[in-house]
Amino acid sequence: MSTPKKFTRPPTAQQAVLAELRRAIIEGDLAPGSQLIQEAVAESLGVSRVPVREAMRILQGEGQISYTPHRGYFVTELSLDELEEIRRIRELLEEEAVVKAMPNLRDEDIAAMAEAYEEMDRAGAAGDISAMNAAHTRFHFALLSASGMTRLLKILRQLWDAADPYRAVYHGEAASRRTAQDQHAALLRAAEQRDTERAVKILDAHRQQTIDRLRGSLGKPAGQS
Amino acid sequence: MSTPKKFTRPPTAQQAVLAELRRAIIEGDLAPGSQLIQEAVAESLGVSRVPVREAMRILQGEGQISYTPHRGYFVTELSLDELEEIRRIRELLEEEAVVKAMPNLRDEDIAAMAEAYEEMDRAGAAGDISAMNAAHTRFHFALLSASGMTRLLKILRQLWDAADPYRAVYHGEAASRRTAQDQHAALLRAAEQRDTERAVKILDAHRQQTIDRLRGSLGKPAGQS
DNA sequence: ATCATGGATCATGTATACAGAGCACAGTAG
DNA sequence: CTACTGTGCTCTGTATACATGATCCATGAT
Q1: Following CA atoms A136, A139, A142, A143 in sequence, which dihedral angle do they give, to the nearest 10 degrees?
Q2: C-alpha to C-alpha distance for A35 and A74, rounded to whole angstroms
Q3: What is the DSSP code string of A34-67?
Q4: pTM to 2 decimals?
Q5: 85-114 of A, contacting B, C-beta below 8 A
Q6: Whose C1' is closest to the CA of A36: which nucleotide?
Q7: Going residue by residue through chain A (225 aa), what tens digit of pLDDT does each one get?
Q8: Closest partner residue to B61 among A13, A58, A93, by Cβ?
């Protein structure tokens, strides 16, 4: 009986809490700056506070949520300056990843990118922002992962996760989606041709365009708290 | 009564466990690959297992220790390839940090570097490897911190922490210490003159030299387990 | 009326207790 | 002698219960 049908058995345990918190933060169910009440989370997921606390600790270590002793946990809130800093770090690290990835890029990787691209179209048309976000991440990491640099990928993953709540805002605008998809199509072509230099250029423009849009969307509402 | 004498009050609590585990890992008391038994740690520090588990979770999120469900926690073990990957990431990020730091560099920052430099000499002569390691980190981060890029600094801090157990090996060799101090002196001079380009060059050579030495020291003992 | 002080309340922090999964060792069958 | 299976132990995982620190509001004094 060798895993008859993949049988997605419930993962060990508070792994589930971690996954759920991640999802909720990335998809924006938990707005940046909002507090995470341990007991509320525990009750809503049907577990005790202990596994909830541990999941929060991991997210704390990753920087997804911030913590003050005896005060509690809060979803990390990013300023435009911090988003800009993340963009810059990504620029440096993703260039390295792409340079290392290109020679290793297999046809399956291209296929995975193409699949994710199609999925983004579908989800975008259906207005399913969260599915679109997921496909977007898959698209980019299909390329980056070919670098084989595990440590670098882990860092990039964290940077993406940190910025994801804001990406949802961006993907909500139809015009932004359109531009982004054009860039993704160009990136896919560059990957097919193993054109490293061109891929790096497209990615730089892609990131810059994203943050410029965000600057527009987030610049006005100066709401604190 | 405005904080009369800094009064290093005992930190809230398991903060202490976290600090102690960090220290033990960085200084090599806990060898890479060794398992962390929750109860043993708890008993030796006089607390229960709960705060120990939470401290471990944070380190897990940071990548300092790795975790397998129902198996436990192990101090992360790095291969030479991974150390090389870390060196490369540091190269990319530290160049950025130095470029951003130079214009902001204040005389106090230079003084802090000089102080750490002296301390390294003193600790090195006294054979106090762990004090030397601490001063070494202070020296470099006195420069890097002036960049003001908090997210980038956090990443660099984690990369340094991850590699620290191996740095101890390196600093144990008198010849390596000598070369390193020469490079540090040169870096200090470059900082005084606000010579960005030169500082970046020295840092690149410094990192490269470190890993070359490690390759020599770690190459031979192919001990598994 | 404003500010300070005290206590009530709530959320977090920690310990203890119990449940469950892995692993090792031993015993037995082939 | 080897391979397999079963049992027991150990360490991890989770729940419950209690302790502590922080915030907020009400009360009283200036």
Answers
A1: -110
A2: 4
A3: -EE-HHHHHHHHTS-HHHHHHHHHHHHHHTSEEE
A4: 0.88
A5: 85-86, 88-89, 92-93, 96
A6: C11
A7: 433 433 444 566 688 899 999 999 888 888 888 999 999 999 999 899 999 999 999 999 888 999 988 889 999 988 899 999 999 999 999 999 999 999 999 999 999 999 999 999 999 889 888 899 999 999 999 999 999 999 999 999 999 999 988 887 788 788 888 999 999 999 999 999 999 999 999 999 999 999 998 887 766 554 433
A8: A58
Say how many residues make up chain B.
225
Cβ atoms of B115 and B73 closer than 8 Å: no
Residue B73, phi then psi, degrees to nearest 5: -110, 140
The amino acid at B222: A
- Which of these, A189, B83, B138, lies nearest to B130 by C-alpha position? B138
The answer to whether the CB atoms of B62 and A61 lie below 8 A apart is: yes
Token reading at A124: 């975008």
- For chain A, how long is the longest CA-to-CA vector? 59
